[in-house]
Specification:
Blueprint: H1 15-21, H2 23-46, H3 55-66, H4 81-90, H5 92-111, E1 116-122, E2 127-131, H6 137-143, H7 153-156, H8 160-167, E3 171-173, E4 186-194, E5 200-209, H9 216-247, E6 251-255, E7 261-264, H10 266-272, H11 284-287, H12 293-298, E8 303-313, E9 316-329, E10 332-342, H13 343-354, H14 370-382, E11 389-392, H15 399-408, E12 417-421, H16 430-435, H17 453-456, E13 461-465, H18 472-484, E14 486-487, E15 496-497, E16 501-506, H19 510-515, H20 521-527, E17 530-533, H21 544-558, E18 565-566, H22 568-575, H23 582-596, E19 601-602, H24 609-615, H25 627-641, H26 646-652, H27 657-667
Parallel strand pairs: 11-16, 11-17, 12-13, 13-16, 18-19
Antiparallel strand pairs: 1-2, 1-5, 3-4, 4-5, 6-7, 6-10, 8-9, 9-10, 14-15
Helix pairs in contact: 5-9, 18-20, 21-23, 25-26
Amino acid sequence: MTMPKSTMPKGAIDRNTLAAVYQDEISEYIQRLDELGAARQNFIEKEVIGPCVRPEIAESWKRCKSLKLSARQSRNQYLSNEALKDTLKKNTFLINVSSPILHSVHENLINASYLCVAFLTDREGIILDCIYHEALTEELELMGMKAGSIWQEQYVGTNSVSLALHNNQNFYTFGPEHYMDDHTQINCVTALIHNNDGEVAGTITISFYKEFFNDLMMVVFSTASDLIEKQFLNFRNMRIAEYTFNNMTEGMLILDSHMNVTQMNKKFLQLLKSNNVHASDLDIHMLFKDIDFDLLRCDTHLHTQIPETFLSYKSVYSRVSADIYRIEAYGTVDGFVILCRDINDIIALSQQFTSSATTFHFDTIVTKDPQMLALIEECKQAAKYKYPILLEGESGAGKEVFAQSIHNASGRSSKPFIAVNCAALPISLVESELFGYEKGSFTDGLSTGKAGKFEQANGGTIFLDEIEELPLDVQSKLLRVLDNYRVTRIGGKTEKKLDIRVIAATNRDLYESVQNKNFREDLFYRINVMNFKIPPLSKRLGDIPLLIDHFLNHLNLENRGIDKIMSQDCIDALCMYSWKGNVRELQNAVTRSYYLCNDTVITRSHLPASFKTVEAQAYPEQAMPTRANVEYELIRKALIACSGNISAAADQIRMSRATFYRKLKKYDIKY
């Protein structure tokens, strides 16, 4: 493989000069080539391995022999045009990253009088790109050095590409170390390219005329492969930065040192409510009119936090928070980064941590009572709409359970559920807690102001428990909020639009409070669009055994390794109580007896003393109901509600048909 003198690159170093510099090294090198050439010939003819042959080369020669390769005749293999097209496409990134560096290395070697060919392969040894001087075209064709050629040992014999891939390390081959005669006039150096996961992605190889080979080539090519691998990492980091830039929750602006906008991300475009804005169209001084950017340029702080400001663009006027970061490079200002978030997004995030936990669903309500089951179905239907709901019921009857269940059955289930106990709010703070306040409204208030419960619940549900306890002046403001679904903070000048579901609850006769002038009549009718009365436990005694089992199961789960049950005598006693505190009182009684019991069976002796003293007077005007009485009434009411349909009645109280028939016979119930 020779290059005519007329085709030598302009400015190339003369070979005679190189020969004079490396004369001793070249002499040793030629001697080694002669030894390897003799060893190769001896192996091909007699299959004897000489001492000068490296182990990796010897093993490769043996594999070539076992494959019945002929050293005299090449078996070059190429991909079809279609297969090559697919392979190039699959390795687009490898080619784009590696080829510029490979071209640069080849050009520098040519300029240094190295007559060489550089090529890139994939992890299978298929040539993807081949760089050479046009004078070498014909000879390279004979050796199979072109795109699509498969440089695997089974086709081209011993070569540096297959040995590098086989041994998972950079590798070089001298001319006589190649198995094929066509390759004995070239020396090759191959360096592996690893991707970011440490896997081999491909190789780069330099093949050149043997007289010009020295160890420096391995160093040069290892450095080139390192550069390519760094490009892999740089590209990944760039993509991570790009992904983060366009998918972060904050809007981002990048400014140069003169406060000109150079870049913005997708979130910032969303804040501007426009997708057709170019960075060059924006003036930072007009976007944030109340921020003194000239002062910020002179400020030495790397970070300036602005809790609340306004973003202005055309018809957009939004409240945002802003964090401004100063970028410095070697002591000089190189630009600024501004991160801004819509105040509404901040409120929504805080709602995830301040919202009451909505653990209740309609399916978790423990009941077989026909009246309760009918109420659940009505509330499921009401949950589909946004109209206000008023829940009435005694304390402990489960008003918040129903409120949470309605919320979770609605389209707002993924949004906040804010529970407010109106009776627990200090009179002086009721208005600020519900509607919020702007900064500077109170001497001891937060410097940034505070969103009220209605703002915190925006998009979701607000539950106003014991609503009758609200002061009349606050009731009037609540009425205005419910009229137009807008709220104004104390000290504020602008109204904030709300998308909210209001559920109110009371344990009193709210209409009576209206008659007594303790509750506004217009507010009563505003919140009383859908009214549901939750029956007390004393009206659904059949649920008591179910609730006892439910509470015991929960306690046993909390106390792993303990499995307590309640005696029938104790259950009967609980069924005979009037339960003025409703489900909450029953739960407390079961919990107390559970922890006071040192055995696995809870008996009447573990019930509270106060419970025992009033047990006999629980129903002074009627005979004390036994469990059998309760079960009898439950079945009878279910039959009436279902017009005598046994299957429907059994389903309604969640009892199997076989058990239902057995109970009908036991209590002699006609149907």
